[in-house]
Design a protein that fits this description.
CATH architecture of the largest domain: 3-Layer(aba) Sandwich
Order of helices and strands: EHEEHEEHHHEHEHEEHEEEEEEEHEEE
Oligomer: single chain
Number of strands: 19
Number of domains: 2
Largest sheet: 6 strands, mixed
Amino acid sequence: MGLPMSSSTPVIEVEGITKCYQSYQKPIHRLWQSFATKKQFYQEFWALKGIDLTVNKGETVGIVGKNGSGKSTLLQIITGILQATDGECKTDGRISALLELGAGFNPEFTGMENARLNASIMGLTREEFHQKLPDIVEFCGLGDFLQRPVKTYSSGMFVRLAFAVAINMNPDILIVDEALAVGDVRFQRKCFRRLDQLKEQGVSILFVTHSTDSVLKYCDRAIMLDDGELKLTGSPKQVVQAYLEMMFASDVTVSKPVVIVPEDYNVDFDPTQDNCLRHPTYNSNEERWGDGRAKICHYEVLQNGAQTSGLVHRGDNLRIRMSVLFEHDVDDIIYGITVKTNDGNAVYGTNSRLVGSLPTTQNAGDLVSVEYELTLNLLAGDYFVSLGVAQDHESKDAIPVDRRYDLIHLHIGQTSEAFGYAALDAKMSLVADDSDV
């Protein structure tokens, strides 16, 4: 990603925005309401409740939240498609929007006709559109399909055309509503490369996504909506963590038990205490959450069989042992580990549900030790290891019991022959051409 071009100049200012929908049980009630002066024949649904948001020039802001939290409604008000019930929204500059699939496209028109129509709506002249046309055609890669009605398009073809048009309208503000989740991964990568270029040019980007990795990688800032309210605004890492906690929070109410540690536990630590805090690799800025039915009470990091201070080397054998004290009976247990970069991108992760080799039931008072063995095929940099215990769940995927994100900090020493994260150990050589001339 290039150098950020953001400034403190606001291009989007949302103040106290609310949006209320009126829901009628029967169509006739709409007619009755038009004559009624005192009686209300509808129910109110508040999609947005007093939202305040400022986006600066060149800033990329991600919006996360559960389905129905008001994300799409907010974007539609900013783009002018919807009118707010109350509040004020100011924008400065040309807005190009990629909203829900097919929005703004006439299904009977061809792809080319829809592209021309969208350019006209955006205020481009015929000459400007024809100047942009080769870039649109090249980027979408639809070929002869541009001369066919868009009602014959697949969802992926819709996205290709819509994105190609949106990014070529010389926008000052680009708004994307989850559309990039559709389509093949190669085109998604192409889109994100173009987003990088637009940001370097000073374009402000506001996008809704359920991909937390995309928020961490591309956004300068993030916000979280829930039930029409702005619950949190802050750094991508902070907001993503809060979003994950909200999405996977347990419904289990856990009472505090009295745990009696058996005398036959052959360990040199007190399992009822948090012994992780005293290790040299412990990260005091960890994020910890879960319902508390079990606790990760201790860990060790062995570097090539010996204790480590956290300074490790590429190619080292790493064994991480975590001790878990169960304070309640738990079944369908999942033990997991994730290795992330310092900006929160996962480079490796696995769990016992994928491996399928560990016991899945423990009783209150059990103390178990789980060991992960890794080979550090990573390049120089700072990495954080997350450990977790969860319970398999049909609808929530996994209920956190004790998740300790970024618990362990490791630093891999400097290397200069490569960049990135993975140590793939590429070799380069010139291959002699032995063919006869």
